[in-house]
Write a structure and sequence with these properties.
The protein is α/β, with parallel strands linked by helices. It has two domains: 166 residues, FAD/NAD(P)-binding domain, CATH 3.50.50; 110 residues, no CATH class. It contains twelve helices and 15 strands. The strands form four sheets. It has a seven-stranded mixed sheet with strand order 9-2-1-12-11-10-13. Strand 1, helix 1 and strand 2 form a beta-alpha-beta unit. Helix 1 runs parallel beside helix 9 and helix 3 packs across helix 4. It is globular.
Length: 347
Amino acid sequence: MKSTVAIIGAGPAGLTAAYLLSKNKVDVTVLEADPVYVGGISRTSTYKGFHFDIGGHRFFSKSKAVEDLWTEILPNDMLQRPRSSKIYYDGKFFTYPLKPFEALIKLGIVRSTICVLSWLKARLFPVRHPRNFEEWVSNQFGKRLFNIFFKSYTEKVWGMSCKEISADWAAQRIRGLSLGSAIKNALLPQRSPNGDRTNVIKTLINSFRYPRKGPGMMWEACAEKVKAMGGKVEMAARVNGCAYDEARSTWTVQFKDRDGNQHSIEAEHVISSAPMRELVCGIRPEVSERTRRAAESLKYRDFLTVMLILKERNKFADNWIYIHDPRVKVGRVQNFKSWSPEMVPDP
């Protein structure tokens, strides 16, 4: 088997690359380990007519080019959905993004006063060069609000102390968010962006787009478009080796099919969305020992998604609820019907 470009992984990155290359008449072959689903962790699983998003994926980007690409791939099936989420803390539900006045009322007069004083202290005496997530968020919200609304959830999701997560990551993840911007948004909510989105604070958006039957619908459509343009998408193709022949300027990618039979594909170029730790260890010629050690030291965070089907269809209207209680391992509860009514079959 030969191809101009071999792409490892049929998730959003791999399929987007395949789609754009196919549009430019480049021969591509996508190798996906999953025997059924494309989309990676942006796939949509189905069970008895119910659709489940693995992870919860809103479609919103500050980049018009990205938004236009999604529209091009799935022109007639993207819904505009209202964003509604809450934090469950100390037996109470707090709207998120935080509405400062609501949060302060529910926290009570004593804790609220301490939180405000903590925030004022952070504004007057900030950490000058924040090095980690805790210092960066404490600068924006004060130490008290950090401990209440950020610390436990972040550490549950990422499995590490907030002091071990870099400030750069925090600045990228929740850029523009602070108690000041939250108060401003509560008084003057952001309008739905139609044009320039560069100044939009993503954490504060009040609506997002979502495919009728989950994000997997986007990537299934993308895979079909790739095939319609002549590209190949091989399912149950688990890559186990990637060797480069410098004399021939050719890559040979080896993979096993669903029956365990070994196959190979030759390509001029390889694009990989596989985990770096696995990719580096399978490349030939071998990388340097330093590079191998760096790859092997990378950590990945696994997560479990438990799907519950309830007879009560209107238990809560939010898209999701964050569970900040450190006594339980649950990170958040999602209601897929509020993402799209078509995620749940008619009674």
